[in-house]
Amino acid sequence: MIRVVIADDQTIVRAGFAALLGAQEDITVVGEAGDGAEAVDLARRHRPDVMVMDVRMPRMDGIEATRRILADPGTENLRVLILTTFDIDEHVYDALAAGASGFLLKDATAADLVSAVRIVARGDALLAPQVTARLVREFARQRRSRITPPAALATLTARENEVLILMAGGLSNAEIATHLVVSEHTVKTHVARVFTKLTLRDRAQAVMLAYESGLVTPGQP
């Protein structure tokens, strides 16, 4: 079972998400929070697999809550899925930088939400496809001058570097395998090594690092 905590300051929204996710055979909702501070408390108390987190909430917003939750060694395996009503929002980017595994627009379909929870629960990243390019590329462009590429990039092999670039392009493991004409298992091995060498949690952080470091440039195919 995927254990989920929902954090949103709107009671009706929380109830709707809880009913939708709780109706799935493989998902159980173990808590609901009305603000960021409560979300942090529930994350530490219940140790869920996934936290569905709104960005704008009272007392503590979703960004700070995400940062505090993922900084806690006791919640190192927890994944945060950010929900937002805005398709371009620097606050969402900040949440991803804080360690969130992805984000989804609140106008996404019910099926999209359920799928998103399952995706981040298994350790993959979820970035809303209709806004990923604009969000990541725009803010990466703005911040790149302030980012020093990690020295660990130099430790990647040529193939690992290629895999990182393809991940930044939004390709799944299966798509990367097809592109490189290798097995999906081989790709998973390369991805795992990239994460380890660069100290990354998931693909969301890999995408941001690739753009911020200049490995991939805005507009590059």
TrEMBL record:
Gene3D superfamilies: 3.40.50.2300
The keyword Acyltransferase is annotated on this UniProt entry: no
Domain (HTH luxR-type) ranges: 149-214
Keyword field contains Transcription: yes
Modified residues (4-aspartylphosphate): 54
GO MF: DNA binding
Domain Response regulatory positions: 3-121
GO biological process, one term: phosphorelay signal transduction system
Keywords: DNA-binding, Phosphoprotein, Transcription, Transcription regulation
Protein name as annotated: LuxR family two component transcriptional regulator
Species in which this protein is naturally found: Actinocorallia herbida
Lineage summary: Bacteria, Bacillati, Actinomycetota, Actinomycetes, Streptosporangiales
